Amino acid sequence: MPDIIQLLPDNIANQIAAGEVIQRPSSAVKELLENAVDANATEIKLIINDAGKALIQVIDNGKGMSETDARMAFERHATSKIKNIDDLFHIRTMGFRGEALASIAAVAQVELKTKKAEDETGTFIEIENSAVIKQEPIAYANGTSIAMKNLFFNVPARRNFLKSNAAEMRHIIDEFIRVALSFPDIFFSLTSNGQEVFHLERATLKQRVVQVLGTNNNSKLVSVQEDTDYLNIYGFVGKPETAKRTRGDQYFFVNNRFIKSAYLNHAVMSAFQQMIPADSFPLYVLFIDMDPSQLDINVHPTKQEIKFEDEKIVYAFVQAAVKHALAQFSITPTLDFDLDPSIQHLDAVSKPVTTENKNATTSSSLYKTFTQKNQAHFIEADNKSELKHWRTFYESPGEEKKIQGESDKVQDVINEQTPAFIDQRSSPLEIIEDQKLIQIHNTYIVATTNRGFILINQQSAHERILYERYIAAAHGKAIATQTSLFPVTLQLSTQDAVLLNDLMNDLNELGYLIEPFGKDSFVVQGTPADVLQGNEKRVLENMLEQFKYFSNDMKFSKREKLIRSLAWQHAIKPGTSLTEKEMKRLTDDLFACAQPNITPNSNPTYMEFKKDYLERLFGK
Ligand code: ADP
Ligand code: MG
Predict the structure, then answer these.
(1) Does residue 70's CB lie within 6 angstroms of at least one atom of ligand 1?
(2) Rg of the Cα trace of the chain?
(3) Among 149, 168, 258, which residue's Cα sits nearest to residue 212?
């Protein structure tokens, strides 16, 4: 038998290694931008064609490379940034693994132009499949340009795995923004298919945040600044009233490196506690600077996760710094967060807030319905209460055992826990026509049925109705558009504009008539016929936020995400008073649904109270 073990040829070994570093166009963008930053550039231009599938080019005015270095740079483990293992614990550069250029050269056609200020001529190198196919001296400005063409041209399996251009472009913009935020004193531009998408002049951090995250943030930022022996924290948080309904602009940087940390995110959220509704998310852009020896940035191949030597200290500092900043700007906990106008006139909300009635208000269940997830079926967890068994009865199992999208299981749990709940074997549920419908707390509707009564959550019910209507629209039953008398313009961040462009066709089918109107602007010419005009702007902005939130959920298609976002967005909110006629229409529409008993997220839309259960409750 011959021996069978062979060494892999370099280009194949590089291709395999490249899989770790370059997963998609945005990973290459990140590496190239970071190299330019490490080269002390003050101007960095990113050029993208076809969402990076055809071309990714980064041009910088940094220190450039000598002819030998230019050649060396593409070798695996070739780096000028660390020399021995100790250096690993004092890293001040963005890169250090010496893998990026080798990986890029393995999976794309690369052209490098570079010149050092002290050299007469520059160097041009062309590489394909990890092999240099051309090298010559050229005249070139000081700095470096690296162009990579046809990413994954030689790894078709990976190329096919890439997402739509819009999706890949979003990833690229995300990476671009992260780098641009951490280096405000560097000029950045991003040009996509010949159009300049970002043009970020050198600026202060605050200006950069505004440049990148949108001009409407200008007056809404509170600055955070806390210096200690152990670490420094600085940056900005959004004022509480600007908190959004979904996770949006939240950025942590440690020693200027973007990181993801659920733990530190929690520290910020807890500093905001009581100031924002429990289900909303504040904006933050926070930088932590600390001794690199207190960190291990090596735990994740793409370096987004980080290990702190002492995580608890960092948590405490972050929390304290944000609390302090919010207190300094005398943003005290009040109820003046951004509620629906329809909710604002409610007593508990609109009365002036004295300490006394603030305490009363915060302990009232009404306040909690708003702050605690807007969940209609939330009941204060107080086991000592003599209403205990009521609680078990009311509290939807969906609250604790909710399994997203698995409605059958939710139904099983419901049946199991509350025998009075919908029992499929008995006669089908019918609402008794000539009985009055009653609205309570402007939130629920009580309806008498053939089997007892049901308590409908108006918001959840409406969400179900809209969801099914939008699904039907997507299958050809287009929703009528009403033309706006006063078309509204929308000015979005570049990120959101890319997203909205991507969703435009689907939105049209759902009754929205939206047209592009200059850079990152849109005009809303019409809305679905059954949507109240006047708050299109807010609805669309919230919809984009919600969509991004769903975007993390791979199991939904783009259209499903859009439909869920819109249904959630348009559903009538708690606190909306309904006329008898509106209640009638809502219940009729609900029971005309294919699946009336749960929302698209599998929360219950109503609770059933059956006659025999009611009798048992009263000891009959
Ligand atoms: P790393 O950044 O981890 O060192 P890379 O593969 O990204 O590894 O780059 C290898 C080397 O090439 C760097 O250490 C640096 O010396 C050089 N280099 C890469 N990009 C540039 C650039 N834009 N300007 C100057 N030198 C660069
Ligand atoms: Mg690098």
Answers:
(1) no
(2) 29
(3) 258
In this structure, what token pair is assigned to residue 16?
């395999």
The pLDDT value recorded for residue 395 is: 33
Identify the helix (H) or strand (E) that includes residue 136.
strand 131-138
Cβ of 96 below 6 Å from ligand 1: yes
Largest CA distance in the chain: 100
Instruction: Take residue 173 and report the two structure tokens written for it.
Output: 């913009």
How far does Cα 389 stand from its chain's mean position? 39
Look up residue 16 and give its amino acid. I
Determine the pLDDT at residue 95: 75
Q: What is residue 388's predicted lDDT score, i.e. its pLDDT?
A: 31
Running DSSP on this structure, what letter comes out for residue 297? T
Q: Closest by alpha carbon to 450, among 468, 477, 474, 430? A: 430
Q: Does domain 206-328 have CATH number 3.30.230.10?
A: yes
Residue pointed to by tokens 């009336």: 596
Q: Count the helix, strand and coil residues of the chain and give each as a percent rounded to the nearest 5.
A: 40, 20, 40
Q: What is the pLDDT of residues 1-45, one digit of tens each?
A: 788 888 888 777 777 777 778 889 999 999 999 999 999 999 999
Helix (H, G, I), strand (E, B), or coil: what is residue 152?
coil
CA distances from 538 to 533, 543, 544 (A): 11, 8, 10
Sheet holding 231-238, edge to edge: 221-227, 231-238, 284-290, 250-254, 257-259
80 lines ligand 1 (CB under 6 A): yes
Q: Report the separation in Å between the CA atom of 13 and the middle of ligand 2, taken as the mean of its atom positions.
A: 19
Alpha-helical (H) ranges within 252-298 are 262-272
Identify the residue with better confidence: 184 or 535. Answer: 184
Q: What pLDDT, on the 0 to 100 scale, is given for residue 304?
A: 72
Tell me which residues have their CB within 5 A of the ion that is ligand 2.
Answer: 35, 95, 100
* Distance from C-alpha of 444 to C-alpha of 19, rounded to nearest angstrom: 53
Q: Which residues of 255-280 are buried (b: 16+ CB within 10 A; e: fewer)?
A: bbbbbebeebbebbbebbeebbbeeb
Using most ligand atoms within 8 A of CB, pick from 32, 33, 68, 79 the residue to mutate for ligand 1. Answer: 79
Q: In sequence order, which residues have a C-beta less than 8 Å from that of residue 501 and are 6 or more positions away?
A: 166, 516
- Cα separation values, 480 from 382, 464, 469, 470, 601, Å: 48, 19, 12, 12, 26
CATH topology of domain 10-200: Heat Shock Protein 90 (3.30.565)
Q: Check pocket membership of 71 for ligand 1, CB cut-off 6 A.
A: no
pLDDT beyond 70 at 332: no
Q: What is the mean pLDDT of the chain?
A: 79
Q: Is the pLDDT of residue 517 over 50?
A: yes
- Ramachandran quadrant class, 498 (left: phi over 0; alpha: psi -120 to 50; beta: rest): alpha
Tens digit of each residue's pLDDT (9 = 90 or more) over 190-227: 999 998 999 999 999 999 999 998 767 778 899 999 88
Give the pLDDT confidence score for residue 426 in this predicted structure: 54
| Span of 26-40, 140-154, 429-443, 472-486 with lowest mean pLDDT | 472-486
- Has residue 349 got a pLDDT over 50? no
Q: Out of 3.40.50.720, 3.100.10.10, 3.30.1370.100, 3.40.50.2000, which CATH number does the structure's domain 410-620 have?
A: 3.30.1370.100
What's the rounded Cα separation, in Å, for the pair 533 and 484?
Answer: 7
Write down the pLDDT at residue 54. Answer: 96
Residue 116 has pLDDT above 90, yes or no: yes
Domain boundaries, the chain: 10-200, 206-328, 410-620
The mean-pLDDT minimum among 145-149, 441-445, 484-488, 605-609 falls in 484-488
